[in-house]
Amino acid sequence: MGFEKDPSPAEIEVDREYGLETEHALALAKKTSDEFSSPIIKDDGDWTSGRDGRLGLVIRRLLGWGVEARGILPVPRAQRTDRQFSKIFFIWFSANFNILSFSAGTTGPLIFGLGLRDTCLVVLFFNLLCCIPPAYLTTWGPKLGLRQMCQARFSFGYYGAIVPSVLNLVTMSGFMILNCILGGQTLSSVSNGHLSWSVGIVIIAFVSLFISFCGYKILNWYERLSWLPVLVVYVVALGLGGKHLSNPSPAEPATAASILSFASTIAGFVLTYSSLSSDFTTYLEADVSSFKIFTYSYIGFLLPIVPLQCLGAAFAVSAPLIPSWSSALSTGSVGSLFATVLSPVGGFGKFLTVLLSLSVTANIAPTMYSFGLSFQVFVPYCARVPRFVFSVLATVIIIPLSIIGAHRFYSTLTNFLGLISYWASCFIALVLIEHLVFRRHRFTSYDVSAYNQPQKLPLGVAALAASIMSFALVIPSMDQVWFVGPIARHTGDIGFELAFVVTGVLYFPFRWIEFRLVGR
């Protein structure tokens, strides 16, 4: 692929224009360590010493093996040459074709008391809507060569972008924790008590670390294939358990409040991909049709999420009627439910359960990949550090937190998904209005070379003010376990909808004033 070849003199000139000599120095290091000289590597004898430091030697060796080091530095147009556009479909498809999507669907009946029909209708219509923003933002990567949080600097400003970056780090950590819990519990369920949840969590985390550590090439290869064994698991599980599925009437009729609160959970599941959408498309050919990338992405989100969430709801409403299923779910582990469903086929069922436990790695690995990119925006000095270092950092963070949260999975899942939809809606409204209104949908209006120059970027006051002030209405509209706002008592949780609308409305005048005052 084009981005893996040694840079030509013309490409080096392009990088000088963008201020990216560092990345070409790293690329040259793949050819020979004698040529390795990067301004990010200092001769002070520590880990950053390119020629003498031990870690510098390790970094050169890793680069020679094809491990990707590039972080938030823009990908120059000359290196945006990848024409395998279907990659982005498999990234999103595999990332969502796992047990977490199934678990999100079970919250409709188990947490919000909805019947199967109402759950599936919410899943269908809200996913049809909420998959649009992350799919659209993937189209920006090939045009700008910028990672998603770097793009945010053109709305939030250099320092203001630290705020969504921190929120994105928290969000990604939360998703990695949920996936590690699910994967660890599922892996443990086949061991007859010989493998604890904690050990299962550690295994899942380290498998994900390996994939993420290697970077773009290995990640795409893995995502292209990882969904296949998971499909086999679901087909067999449906074949074995399908005869037990039923559609009993819910104990109480669905209310608007319960439907909207569940919708907020579903929205949080997919909207938050918007904060990392373009991280995986920056190497794609710049002239690719945006409609093609959008279509690949939209279907990649929608195709796995809707069927699996509906399948999760179907198993959840049927479980109380089947003692063995009900007993498995009472442990708080969806993995135990699958182990029970697959138990009629003996050892093969255990093998399939192990495969299902590993399905979460297809979500954790790309999330780890983006974790490092957001961290580099959060702490700009860390742009000097190779991207793969942050995959290790993410692993160190999520393992202990996953072990702590493993026994409170469902409360963790619903609280987390409901909360993250609020900030994600604010973020989406801001970047869309900035691009579609103030920049008139013109990618040429972005001075990519200014991505790390605060004096050439917006102040970010308008974006932060609009986001913060929107919560004057969002907070009263929240419906969480620990807080129910006065508006939400009558309507259910409409926080993410109001976050999008109010932030967008406020950003119009605020950004116009900001531009008039500072001219950028």
From TrEMBL:
Pfam families: Transp_cyt_pur (PF02133). Signal peptide: none annotated. The keyword Transmembrane helix applies. GO terms for biological process: nucleobase transport. It is a multi-pass membrane protein. One of its GO terms (cellular component) is plasma membrane. The chain crosses the membrane at residues 89-112, 119-136, 156-182, 194-219, 225-242, 254-276, 296-322, 364-381, 388-410, 416-437, 457-475, 495-513. GO terms for molecular function: transmembrane transporter activity. It comes from the Eukaryota. Keywords: Membrane, Phosphoprotein, Transmembrane, Transmembrane helix, Transport. PANTHER family: PURINE-CYTOSINE PERMEASE FCY2-RELATED (PTHR31806), PURINE-CYTOSINE PERMEASE FCY21 (PTHR31806:SF5). This is Cytosine-purine permease. It comes from Rickenella mellea.
